[in-house]
Write a structure and sequence with these properties.
Jelly Rolls, 10-stranded antiparallel β-sheet, mainly beta, 118 residues, 0% helix
């Protein structure tokens, strides 16, 4: 399908995180090269430090968060663009009173998620 409403797609809980849901907007069966995902983190929610084998390109839609990428900590907000190289430890902590929401593009390649320090 070429066009559909994001609201019609299911959002699943991200079990490694807290207060975090993920929607697959365009999956590997639709786009041969990339997948497009939407993450929604409730205030106070987030994802622990982890690695992925594949890179992440992200665009923040709303809210604020602290994002750790490798040894650097960043305060991000709506309108910011985030790049996370494959294999780099990263984490998210939503801040403020509104959800933190971003789009995430990843290559359609094998991926493994490993929690760091667990």
């Amino acid at each position: 399908m070429s066009v559909r409403s994001a609201e019609s797609l299911p959002a699943e809980e991200v079990t490694a995180g807290s207060g975090t849901r993920r929607q697959v907007l365009i999956g590997p069966d639709e786009g041969p090269n990339f997948a497009l995902r939407r993450f929604i983190m409730e205030p106070g929610g987030g994802m622990p430090l982890h690695t992925n084998q594949v890179e992440h390109e992200q665009y923040v839609l709303r809210g604020r968060a602290t994002v750790v990428i490798g040894d650097e900590t960043h305060a991000v907000k709506a309108g910011d663009v985030v790049f996370i190289p494959g294999g780099t430890p990263h984490s998210y902590a939503a801040e403020g009173e509104e959800p933190f929401e971003f789009l995430c593009v990843v290559p359609n390649q094998p991926d493994r998620i490993d929690l760091v320090g667990c």
